[in-house]
Specification:
Number of helices: 1
Order of helices and strands: HEEEEEEEEEEEEE
Strand order of the largest sheet: 2-3-6-7-5-4
Radius of gyration: 29 Å
Shape: elongated
Number of strands: 13
Strand content: over 45%
Length: 224
């Protein structure tokens, strides 16, 4: 009789434990929630493709990972593993490259038409010049680049600009900045605040000149 009561109690305890486990499973499952606006609508790997705008082929992009978020209030694309992008001249038969850029990661806001490049940014334009910086923003509507942090701009004539912020207006074909500037040409190094030049750096103006030193002489103080 005592053995029967003992087995009965054990059975009740087993049922209680099983029921408790089921409740935990149900509670855990009910907390799981997927927000379709935060899930990418497209995930592409090892991509090399052409992009069109208004029916014309304008860009060629190469990337390891392309995440597209089209169901959000602000549709956007993310390239977390780096991006190589080329702007093409669709008016030429061979789609000549007008400009190329690469970076460690990128973000493109489709509504604002704003491209953000981050990490080891390198840009080459059709003049043969090169731009390097830590981050860059491109307003596609205004055709305006904002170049930021450790900006270096070089041209084919050996001219070089170093600054921490520079704007590149592609419509007006000019650079301009209110920041500290170090400009090196073939014969001199010039430092000051405020700068404006054409995009080939062949015609330039520094507003507040602080130093002019011939190349090869005593080194200038570091950028501030």
């Amino acid at each position: 009789m005592k053995e029967s009561r003992y087995y009965f109690i054990i059975a009740i305890l087993i049922v209680i434990l099983i029921a408790s486990g089921c409740k935990d499973d149900v509670a855990t499952t009910s907390k799981t929630h997927f927000d379709p606006e935060k899930m990418p609508t497209m995930v592409s790997r090892n991509v090399q493709t052409l992009l069109s705008d208004s029916g014309d082929t304008r860009y060629r992009i190469t990337t390891k990972t392309w995440l597209a978020f089209e169901n959000m209030n602000h549709p956007h694309w993310i390239f977390p593993d780096g991006l190589i992008a080329e702007e093409l001249d669709y008016t030429t038969p061979d789609f000549k490259v007008k400009m190329s850029m690469k970076c460690d990661s990128a973000h493109y806001d489709r509504n604002q038409r704003m491209l953000t490049l981050t990490g080891n940014v390198t840009i080459h334009d059709n003049t043969g010049g090169e731009i390097t910086c830590d981050s860059a923003y491109y307003d596609e509507e205004k055709a305006l680049w904002s170049l930021n942090s450790m900006v270096t701009i070089t041209n084919t004539n050996g001219g070089k600009i170093e600054t921490n912020q520079m704007y590149w207006d592609r419509k007006a074909n000019k650079y301009y900045s209110d920041s500290f500037i170090r400009l090196q040409s073939q014969d001199k190094i010039l430092e000051g605040h405020g700068y404006e030049s054409n995009d080939r750096i062949t015609n330039y103006k520094v507003r507040k000149v602080q130093a002019i030193v011939p190349v090869g002489s005593t080194s200038l103080p570091s950028m501030q």
